Fold each of these.
Amino acid sequence: MSGLADRLADVRMSIADAATEAGREASEITTIVVTKFQPASLVAELAALGVLDVGENRHQEAQAKAAELEGLGVRWHFVGQLQSKKAKHVRAYATAIHSVDRAALVDALRSDEASVDCFVQVNLTDDPGRGGVAPEALEPLVERVLDTPGLTLLGLMAVAPLDEPARSAFARVRTLSERVQRLAPGASSLSMGMSHDFRDAILEGATHLRIGTAITGNRPVAG
Ligand SMILES: *Cc1c(COP(=O)(O)O)cnc(C)c1O
């Protein structure tokens, strides 16, 4: 019996519990298993367990795994900071890009080919190095995404800061989402919630969880 299957079952049960607590259906929540630093073989094991939504945060690693596992039906979610010069390459294999956070990246993702789903990432800290657009600059960036061919805006993405309870941080994202929906009524998805805070995220309306170590176990040391 694989530890992976056990951890996956445990997390799924916790997600179902939190959904019940929030008065929501667990079926409206997509769990993306973040497999950064893990070998492609682990992604193959996840696929065999029925997990097809997988998250990665580095282009080279994601591209290599996507190539190796072609044909398994894995949907690759790009969740890390993305350099504009790599944007076109990520488009080629990603089903969704969760980290759209500046105009130059939006422009680099422009395409006349099939549309890719995306989330605008908001920065909930005062540190510009953390990735994500500052809340004050949210609307112009959303408008730019809406005006750019080749991008379908699903909603907002955020990472909870370390120095604030996750629940109140996610509540702020929910408020920001109302601003976004005034410009884009369909863009109501919320990509938030990781191994240690997914319950809080579900209580604040998360539709896409990005869960790594709670399911995969500890990450191997970066190599
Ligand atoms: C690594 C990562 C996750 C998953 O983190 P865990 O704590 O392992 O669940 C989620 N989102 C992003 C953006 C990440 O880089």
Note: Residues 34, 36, 57, 79-80, 159, 194-195, 210-214 surround pyridoxal-5'-phosphate (CB under 6 Å).
Amino acid sequence: MARINDHYLKLKAGYLFPEIGRRVREFTSANPEAKVIRLGIGDVTQPLAPAVLNAFRSAIDDLATEDRFAGYGPEQGYDWLSQVIIDKSYKPLGVELKANEVFISDGSKCDCANILDIFALDNIVAIGDPVYPVYNDTNVMVGRTGEADEKGYYKGIVYMPFTAENNFVPELPSEKVDIIYLCYPNNPTGTVATKEQLKVWVDYALANDAIIFFDAAYEAFITTPGIPHSIYEVEGAKQCSIEFRSFSKTAGFTGVRCGLVVVPEELMGTTASGEKYSLNKLWNRRTTTKFNGASYPVQKAAAAVYSDEGWMQVKATIDYYMENARIIREGLTAAGITCYGGVDAPYIWLQTPEGMSSWDFFDKLLNECHVVGTPGSGFGPSGEGYFRLSAFGDRENVETAVQRIKAKWGK
Ligand SMILES: *Cc1c(COP(=O)(O)O)cnc(C)c1O
């Protein structure tokens, strides 16, 4: 008898995006002439940078030759990629890393899930609310939680509300936690944390022997000077933090797939008998056993992001999205809608007007403006009364969407 992993049955059906799809289809079939603009997605829309494409193509050509053919590479990724990431992306922040502390992967979602492999089940985990659902659901899957209550909170997880009242930086939990997920710039709220705010968490982690999982998938979108791009900009973070990064949003790799995890050598966990053990060693063991590396042409394409030409092109696309974000944020603000985010992240998190629920606002926006966004309540109970608009999209569509919203809500 092959027993299944029953913990999967505790998961609530992936309800948010199918439900959005259902309501949009219902609307478009009733209103076939309506030009619906989708600002709900968390996926990039612009093509890869030319320098990245050239590197990608030339790496594929390598595979067509006997002398430049590449088979299995290092499971942890090629040193030439880790090193260029360190030199171009971490050194300028004043963060020193070694190549063996950077693990290249096929994307950050898998990394955020896989990291749980090297931690014991009885750790107490703290997760934001609203949140990128991967952190929550992967903890349910490994069996760290009980059942969900009627609000959607799982027993055994400590939820940290992210709301306008706390400026989207949660307070320290009142009970002791061992693992803390932080995502800045944040998805879905689009907000950031200052170095001082992150230091509170680093100090907590150091004092409590806790580990911070820091998801920096959107660090390249930061425009405000002084906002940390890496948790390691905070003193002491190397002793308590694992950082996740991705080429997905930075360089349009959502379909190409490449990410990375940083596990510093000095980072220690605790064994059952109370001794300190290197998490870098454990993650290396896990990686070499369960993973055979990101593909060679993908790693070549990723390295090209950091060439002078590549970075200029990638940055131009980021600027394009961030101009969209500005148009959305300023347009909505002018229409009297309270907005957060959209300055250092490609998401605008708005407070629904007239105290509407997230789903009521979704319906109104779809029916009256023909614009699709994402109900905040879909990211967690504390997202109720909020709504996410994405800046990934076409300029003309963004401008039209904002004009429609202004015409509807503007005074
Ligand atoms: C998009 C995103 C990622 C990146 O996922 P990939 O698997 O690398 O595409 C990671 N974290 C958050 C919060 C995201 O929104």
Note: DSSP finds twelve helices and 15 strands in the chain.
